[in-house]
Amino acid sequence: MPNPSAPSTPAPPGTFAEEQRLIEALQLHQLELEMQNEQLAATHLAAEAARAQAEAARAQAEAARAQFAALYDFAPAALFTVGTDGTIAQLNERAGRLLGTTAGQLSGRRLLLFVSPESRDAFLEFFGTVLSTRQRHAAEFVLQTAAGSRLVAHVDGVVGTNLAGAPAVQLAVMDITPLSEEVERRQRSDDRLNLALAASGTGVWVWAFATNALEWDAQAQACFGRPHDPSPTSFAVLQDAVHPTDVVLMQQALQATIRHGLPLDIEHRVLWPDGSVHYLAAHAKVQYDAQGRPECLVGLVRDVTERCLAEEALRYRNRQFQEFLQNLPVVFMRLSAAGECLELTGAGLHRLSLPDNSLQGRTVYEAFPALTEPMQRMLSGQPVSFLGSTDTPQQRVHFQNHGFFDEHSQQGVLFSIDVTESEQAKAQLCEEQKFTKSLLDHHVDCVAAFDHAGRLTAWNRAMQALTGRPEAEALGQDVFACLPFSRDSPPGHIVEHLLDAGTRRPRFQQAFSLDGPPRDFELTAIPLPNPKAADKSGGLLLLRDVTERNRLHATAASFKAQQQAETFRMILMAQEVERKRIAEALHNGVGQLLYATKLHLEKHGSAPTAATTTEALELLETAIKATRTVSFELTPGILEDFGLAVALQKLAKSVAPAKLLLSLYLTGLERPLPQVLTVAIYRMVQELLNNVIKHSRAEEATLHVAYEDNHVHISMEDDGGGFNVATAVGSAQGIGLAGLYNRAALLGGHFELVSRPGRGTIASLSLPVIQPEQNPT
């Protein structure tokens, strides 16, 4: 084959130009033919090479197809090629096994038939979305096998072509039923956990050591009285909320947890922002990183305020119960279902001389036979309440018992209260009621009582005799229907006042008269307050027949008037006697001396001598002394100047021993006495002394005057001849004694005279000392 690139051979010399041109043209054509031949040869070679490449590519494609077919059939997912009409064009063996049949039976059938009814609408929407968007999508559906069993499948879909090249949807389906069940189980577990946390009020918190950051959920923040804030905060916020009293305890617990890995389990108090105190239960555990270093503290917190307060209240109740048992007369007993005593305690056992739990192991029927019947009823399930009694060497003891049977513990519980004193008081009260009833029935006054509604509650025999209405008929009736006076009468107004508004007055007094034979009564009304209504009350009525008393009062008034007239007469007579005594003293004493002086002066008047003058002056001096004596007797100035004791001493010294040997004893008179009483005592002593000197014919006398126990006691005793007291006081000569009686009575005192003829006389006076009231300045 010629080389196209070789140079052409030049024409031989002497050749014609035409021939030369033809030769050149032939040479050029030959060259083109050679080139075309070379191109054909090259093309042939290329075609052979292309055929070889095509064969190789076909062989590679067949190998790849065989490999793809193997991968398609043995892929770990179920693969479906679904046409746009929803029919299955192609599927692998796993897809057949997934749906519980063979690939041949599934080919050409609609895939929707194997989708659970509740998932079909979602699958159609998914299938349409894949076709319309031509993008890959994934979803989860519930499928059902040919046998009807259900499974949860994860489906990935993308648009592709089928074997004929038509558009189709390629689906990869994986059975995630175990995973779904595990997820659902975990979800249920998480839901239960969250429900438990929410129900128990438990919050979760995490404290990162590296950053000191605290992450806590809403419930944990609520345990500290804070509104929910999702942002992390500093652990110092939690520490600052701890109650000051529990800070050291909390620090020690945290150190033990962080340093030694011990779990945190503590109850402590916290202060809320509003200042209230709450109790929290904290549980935590340290979490470690891959190198074993503490990374964080994960904990739970729960508000246990209500429980702590309840426990505190329960402890307080238990303490109260123990104090109740130990200090009050009660007995607590627990019994088995067979009646065996499990526990017996309480201060009430002292009355029975039994120590605590001394009857354990014995049945209640053996220990207290009298309780057999009620204990059998209680242990059979019936609650009991009864009064039991037993005899001790000292007395009969009574207990009020209350018991029930606890079905849960199968035990009987009995509380017994020592009511011995109460029962004794009831018995005594019953006796007192009988006595009161007897007393009312035998009371001379008419007695009736009514409650706040006006119903009679008491009616004695005297009232029955007055009204003619028996007690059984009167009790419970309206008060005005039975009483012997009307509602419009003065005593009726008192009863209405008690019924309508009550009163704070302790009692009312009202006199009234009944028609018929003239009879006078006095009503005493005593309010009886109603404990349920302060503005209502009942009353106790006492009707006393005062007809005779009024008659006696009238008689006494008449007698008193007569007595006052007699006293006035006696006073006038005493004044006359005093005037007569003064006149006699002036006439017999001063008058006689002055008359003697006159006679003496008249006898020697013409030529008086020194002796005559001296005698006249002595008579005048004697007259002056007599005048002073009379003046002293009338108005003793020493009494006002020096007091009663000195005046009495002066009076005693004025008695000449030749006339009477007088002994004077004074006690307590240094204390001041009222002026009126001082003068009265002096005059009465003076009267007693004059009586002794003038009438007793006594040689010796003793005078005692003592101020003690707010009384002045006067005693005059002589050894005279004595006399008949009744005769002397009633006679005209007894005016002085009668005056003593009257003076003592007017001063509120007492005068007593004891005398017998030949045996002397004892006169005694006792006068109360009443200090006069001070006038306000």
UniProtKB/TrEMBL annotation:
Gene3D superfamilies xref list: 1.20.5.1930, 2.10.70.100, Histidine kinase-like ATPase, C-terminal domain, PAS domain
Pfam families: HATPase_c, PAS_3, PAS_4
An example Gene Ontology molecular-function term: protein histidine kinase activity
E.C. number(s) listed in UniProt: 2.7.13.3
Lineage top rank: taxon: Bacteria
Keywords: Coiled coil, Kinase, Phosphoprotein, Transferase
Segment forming the signal sequence: none
Coiled coil stretches, renumbered: 28-69
Limits of the PAC domain: 264-316
Protein name: histidine kinase
Organism: Hymenobacter arizonensis
